[in-house]
Amino acid sequence: MFLLPGITNAQDKPTGDGFQIQQTLNQLLGEDQAARYQKILSPDEAISWYVYLPNNNSTVKPGVMVYVSPRETGKIDSRWRSVMDQQNLIYIAANDSGNRKAVNRRMVLATMAIKALAQQHSFATDHIIVAGFSGGGRVASKLASQYPEVFTGALYICGVDYWKKDQTPRVERLLQNRFVFLTGSRDFNRDETKRIYRRYIKAGAQQSKLMVIPGLSHEHPDAAALTEALQFLN
Fold first, then answer.
1. How many Å is the maximal CA-CA distance in the chain?
2. Angle at alpha carbon of residue 56, lines to 72 and 121, rounded to 5°
């Protein structure tokens, strides 16, 4: 369903601040390819993503964190901006892609985020992480398992599903990637997250890390916890 796009020249955009990218599938893919998705998303529907570019002096191309939000906005948690700066990661998340939307739509918007970003900014195609919180974490786990060549790592925050064999034809490739399962001592999804982490390990995903943050409930982790997670995925 998804092919990693080529990278075009970067345009001047503000680092250290958020902005929006808006496109349609017709604009991103052309009419013939966009028509393949018409049962999921109208080719003429305007799609938007929130983007944050890292604010640092690095001469190395940044990686990308594609984030799946459970809410209707893709705006970054303000505490995470400094982490994106330090880890040299571009943050991008679709708007209008919350838990009330169909999973297939959310998956298309997340993969198209890379295509939309590539039209404007250079980035390291060998360092693309998919992340999500709560229901967004469950969608992120589907993306990670179905597109292991695209997403080199995954961060599941307070929500994750185990992969389905009939939807994961390249399990051997998937097991080469890195995964972080982040939950909290007060998160109602804690036990499920720990159980699925153990299933990943049993399946052979040895490059997996479980983080249970003391006192954290069903919520975003702070900058320190996010930094630890992303350093493992680097």
1. 50
2. 60
Q: Among residues 116, 109, 173, 112, which one has the least CA distance to residue 136?
A: 109
Residue 44 placed within a domain:
yes
Q: Which domain holds residue 139?
A: 18-233
Report CA dihedral (92, 42, 151, 231) to the nearest 10 degrees. 20
4 domain-assigned: no
Residue 52 in any domain: the answer is yes
> Which CATH number do you get for residue 125?
3.40.50.1820
| Pairwise CA distance, residues 120 & 78, whole Å | 23
Q: Residue written as tokens 């970054």?
A: 76
How far CA 61 is from CA of 67, 99, 128, 164, 185, in Å, comes to 19, 32, 12, 34, 36
Q: Please count the residues of the chain.
A: 234
pLDDT in tens, 117-176: 999 899 999 999 999 999 999 999 999 999 999 999 999 999 999 999 888 879 999 999
**Is residue 8 situated within a structural domain?**
no
User: How far from chain centre, in Å, is Cα 168?
Assistant: 18
For the chain, the domain total comes to 1
pLDDT digits (tens, 9 = 90+) for 58-108: 899 999 999 999 999 999 999 999 999 999 999 999 999 999 999 999 999
- The pairing of strands 208-213 and 178-184 is parallel
Identity of the amino acid at 146: Q
User: Taking Cα atoms as reference points, which of 146, 110, 108 lies closest to residue 130?
Assistant: 110
